[in-house]
Design goal:
By secondary structure, the protein is α/β, with parallel strands linked by helices. The chain has 15 helices and 13 strands. Helix content is 32%, strand content 19%.
Amino acid sequence: MDTQELIRQLKQSNGSKIVLLVADGIGGLPLTPGGKTELETAATPNLDDLARRGVSGSMYPIRPGITPGSGPGHLGLFGYDPLKYVIGRGALEATGVGFKLGPNDVAIRCNFCTLDAAGNITDRRAGRIASAESAPLAIRLRKVKISGVEVFVEPVQEHRFCVVFRGEGLGGNVADTDPQKTGVPPLPAVAADKESQWTAEVANQFVAQAQELLADQPKANGLTMRGFSAAPRLPSYQEVYGLKAAAIAVYPMYKGLAQLVGMEVMGKPGSLSEEIDVLEKVWPDYDFFFVHFKYTDSRGEDGKFDEKVKMIEQFDAIIPRVEKLKPDVLIVTGDHSTPAKMAGHSFHPVPVVLSAENCRPDACQAFGETAALCGGLGHFEAVHLMPLALAHAGRLAKFGA
């Protein structure tokens, strides 16, 4: 019996409310040995106070030593084993912008990038081009025509857009074309199995036509493709946990993932403060609230230590507004670590703090990576976070006689 099946048997309703605040990529590293991480450098009086009253721990998003993408990282937080439920980034992006994937669809998450005269990538995110600039370019790519396949292109946000291929004989097992570094050209799309060979050919045709359409652009004159995937099927939060769940996020990808596990996406916030406005508005109507903050991650990916510190401090400032709602369980954590020192996701565990009336407080006096190593929750994998949340909310019956 897996954990979700056990939860199905033990779940019970009692009107309690659970809030999961996720600061994307919050975990970090010191720039020098013996120094402080971004989180430990930031002034976080509210998170530190939460740590003193709650119980902390150090969480592996997937398994020790495994570096997670954002999709698997969030699946773990939601209690779904990322190694069992494998969801491609393309399906998340498409769902997040409201595209209904069909049985013959393959979705791809794409990035605009900047290419030099030799065709090498000089900026993998086209300078994080503004959405107002990138959306018309994504729409321009709807001019691409490929025989035997319908092509859909949807703007997402900043440098991101989504492509969906629809047709017979399309498989989703195609390698990413993003080489994950600059100074080299984008990779060709290569299928990992025979069923996906046609998809790879279609993708390469799309890229060739797209680059002609983008040739006049100073920043977004190229693209890379990631996360080829078909629509997944997952059991819902209501089915597994007995929770009516709400998701509040700015970025479409996280809205998409939340929808795939049966959460209802609330509002159209454009900032963290607006996200809390939405939380306050829908508070009476739901049992579980997932609130996502992106910019801790993006500043880490850009290698900007000081900027990530500022984003953490912005995140800390909204904690009193959340606590004013008096959730029965409040959890603060991240989906993975994104150290500015590494300018990307890493395998390092993520600090987590849980506050509830019946939690067992530990000796932690601050919210940070070093303190969390000694916390009462110990070291655990993210799939165990939801059972801990439900237990502290009084939503799990006793197992056995």
